What does this fold into?
Amino acid sequence: MRGSLDAGLLLVAADDGDCPVGFLAVEEIEGTLYVNELDVCPDWQRRGVGRRLMSAAIEMAQQRRLSALTLTTDRYVPFNAPFYASLGFVLPSVEAVPHFLKKKLDHEIAVGMDPERRVAMVLTLKR
It folds into this structure.
């Protein structure tokens, strides 16, 4: 997350008292904006905070003239892959997964994540 902060790629959502309630850490990789982590405090979930953070990231990627947003996530947890799909992210075919995303999936599996649950997702941006 420190790398995202140093690169100006850490987005924070705050309540009316300026107390953080969520964040989105991204990094630019191979012409895409890769989502490292999206987190929203439990009391603030299902209020649109994550969706607003992701919308800001999409806008950031468009301003940077990047081709896509990319991420890896859990296929089954409702606030993971289904949430991203509601924003327009898709599961690319095995052949279409960018090399860096394949490496990230391989690493996640190597450290013990279930290969049946982990997926790469891509939101292609219009130029």
Remarks:
- Residues 49-63 form the longest helix (15 residues).
- The first strand starts at residue 10 and ends at 14.
- The chain has a mean pLDDT of 93.
